[in-house]
Protein 1
Amino acid sequence: MNEMNTQTHTAEDYYRQGNQFRKVGDFSSAMNCYMEALELDSESPAGEALRMLQDIMDFYCKDYYNP
């Protein structure tokens, strides 16, 4: 787990951390942060960010990269 789990953080904190992970391409960590944000605040913008990442992951086709 990341260092955020050792302290009390708000949904906004997790959302921002998720955005940082997403920007560097760490989608798995970003999704985890977004889910944490949603558990704290179901109205968080992390919900939309999580849906967008899930759409990206659903679109990804491993067969294109492994002929």
Note: Residues 27-40 form the longest helix (14 residues).
Protein 2
Amino acid sequence: MFELFARGSTLPEAYHNALLALHADNDELPCPDYGTRQKEAAMTFVAEAPLAEPMISKLFIGDPRSLEQYRQEMLDGILDFEVERGNWEYTYHQRMEKQLPWLVSELRRNPDSRRAVVVIRKESDLSTDSPACLQLLQFMIRGGALHCKVVFRSNDAPKAAFMNAYALVMLQERIAGELGVPVGSYTHRANSFHVYERDYEMFDGYVKRIQAGGELAYCYAGDWDEQMEEAKAEIAKMAAELKSRK
């Protein structure tokens, strides 16, 4: 199995370098759980300055509304009620929320701590067809900045990885704000960083765009942040309508 490493100054640069590395070195093998094939490698990519502009990859398949909704699901739990109703197995927010206050207090107690870990995996994942992909997060203050390191057991490279990383960087920023320290690096580890066969053509297209050069990222400030802010009312309405259904 290929063990790959990529880095970049910004989040899009790190993500794009990860896609290039996966395209160059991967195992193509069956994925029987989903009746398909996949290209796979183990991947670690690092964004040295994840809040630096330009911050949004143009290879993200969603739009400002979908990215804002995902951010709210991850950080604010706007759809946690779906777990309470038994419609969903879990949300990441629902599994994280009770651990985060302890994490902040631990880093206040000892800024040099190695114990500030949030565990997402639960015993119930052993008996479900949809176990959590994100396994754990670790936050460390080093050099006066808050660094975030996450581990995924499985991560869809072209369709999910950037959105996952963006939301987790937003969580990193929130925690750094509570601690009164700047945001440091973001490290994204996926033990299975993969592309399903149905997405091979899209993946090849992404790689050609990266190799061709040119600007492949949008600025968050003054562009996507404004569009994401505008989407909040629509997202709130959607969540309220879903919650009101019986």
Note: Residues 220-244 form the longest helix (25 residues).
